[in-house]
Amino acid sequence: MNAMQLLLSLTDIPDEYILSYCSKTAQHKHRSHAKKALGTAAVVILIVSVVMLNQSRTHLEDNYRIGICHNEPDLDMLDAAYNNRLLLDNLDWSQYGTYESWLYCKTEEMVSNPINWRTLLIFATNAQSRLQVFTIFNDEDISDWKVSMVFRNGNTKTVEINGIQVEIAEWKETPNYQYWHYAIFKYQGVIYDIRIQSNDPEQIMNFLNELIE
Amino acid sequence: MNDSQIIDLYFQRDEQAIVETDSKYGNFCAYISGNILNNKQDVEECVNDTYLRTWNSIPPTVPNSLKAYLGRIVRNISLNHFKANHTQKRYASQADLVYEEFAAILPSRDMLEDLVDSMQLREAIVTWLDALSDIQRAVFVGRYWYFDSIQIIAEKMDCSPARIKMILHRLRKQLKSYLETEGYYL
After folding, report:
1. ipTM, 2 decimals?
2. Other beta carbons less than 10 A from residue A167's beta carbon
3. Looking at residue B71, what is its pLDDT?
4. Which DSSP category does A39 fall into?
5. Under 8 Å CB-to-CB from A101, ≥6 apart: which residues?
């Protein structure tokens, strides 16, 4: 089979598929045009936990290690992670290290190499188990969330991203670590809980402020 | 004039059928052909051939959707025209890009083209398309059926070109994996 044969074979797809594209109108809300973070030196360290509806929020006591990949040229890895939720077992954590060292390392790296935020892979593990939770945010799920979900220290507000109501909660502290309870939202039946965790919230805030209009 | 009335004209062998077809779907056919051929004369030729082929096929065929029916015919004619000219690189069109995108996921062949049962392949493709989300399917059809540019698809879907590229990237990989599983190539 060659490319032409494949292209020709598409000719006879059902009428409904051919016609539905013709009548395609915008199905998504117009993208937010808040200040774009692309190309700017912004560091966002995210710890993502998936809280199922029937689970208690005990994950708050865990210490997370995190890593972030952005898309190109890591598309293959992102796709592997997307399709195989056991990806973490195959990853070399040493390249990311703990979030503290990662934070400072990535900070400098991101200053000189603008991040492409089009796709983010966010994964987390706690000290006890290799895989706690992870999820992938990409344009198929939440468009421009990284821009729209602007953090406000001490404030709470609700924003809508692609029809998803996102609540940004306020700063919280625990004896073990400090974190911002960043956002809670429900998407396709699953509650996602996004947080920023750092031992240096001031530094995080400084970077996040770059995203604020 | 609605499609049923136009089809009746074909059955009555009234050449007004062609006039009405051109009036209603001429731009549509030219759009599809233009995305593939990008040459005005060739597009006109393909569209005219489309009308001729439609005239010769209705009756006995009664299309469920005249628009889709015409789209298929003009797409096929234009692709075969493209095929004849592609190796000569006579002109650039979206079809060149689309062709290369598909060629990238298929193994290169130095020998004669493999003979693949077209009907089986078509059924496999439809099965694969059925499993996609509406958005994924729309993007795929927009790119690989209509040969729309990334920009055009992004505008129609009201999202960024980057997102469209990502969706297409993943779909090509999925399609490749699926065709490999189905044994269409090694």
Report:
1. 0.84
2. 15
3. 95
4. T
5. none
Judge whether A198 is closer than 8 Å to chain B, CB to CB.
no
Identify which of B135, B138, B166 has the shortest CB distance to residue A118.
B166
d(CA A191, CA A175): 25
**Using the beta-carbon criterion (under 8 Å), do A139 and B65 form an inter-chain contact?**
no
What count of residues does chain A have? 213
**Closest in B71, B125, B173 to A18, CB measured:** B71
The CA distance from B90 to B42, in Å, is 12
Q: Which two tokens stand for residue A55?
A: 């689970």
What predicted TM-score, i.e. pTM, was given to this entire model?
0.53
DSSP 8-state secondary structure symbol assigned to residue A91: S
* Better-scored residue on pLDDT, A93 or B172: B172
Contact B76 A11 (CB under 8 A): yes
A to B CB pairs, distance under 8 Å:
133
Q: Which of B152, B177, B172, B36 is nearest to A21 (CA)?
A: B152
Token reading at B176: 């490749």
More confident residue, B6 or A132: B6
Residue indicated by tokens 């990237």: B169
Out of A7, A21, A139, closest to residue B141 by CB: A21
A146-175, pLDDT tens digit by residue?
A: 222 222 233 444 544 444 444 444 434 433
| Residues in chain B within 8 Å Cβ distance of A82 | 170
pLDDT of A46 reads: 35
Residue of A nearest to B146 (CA): A18
CA B74 to chain centre: 8
For residue A47, the cross-strand partners are A195
A28: helix, strand or coil? coil
Of A8, A21, A143, nearest to B76 by CB-CB distance is: A8
Strand partners, A49: A193
Tokens of A35: 């200040």
d(CA A62, CA A177): 9
Looking at the complex, report in whole angstroms how far the Cα of residue A149 sits from the nearest Cα belonging to chain B: 18
| pLDDT 10s digits, B77-125 | 999 998 887 665 554 678 888 887 887 777 655 433 455 567 778 888 9
Region class of A97: left (phi > 0), else alpha (psi between -120 and 50), else beta: left
Q: Are A45 and A103 in contact (CB under 8 A)?
A: yes
Output DSSP code: residue A87.
Answer: G
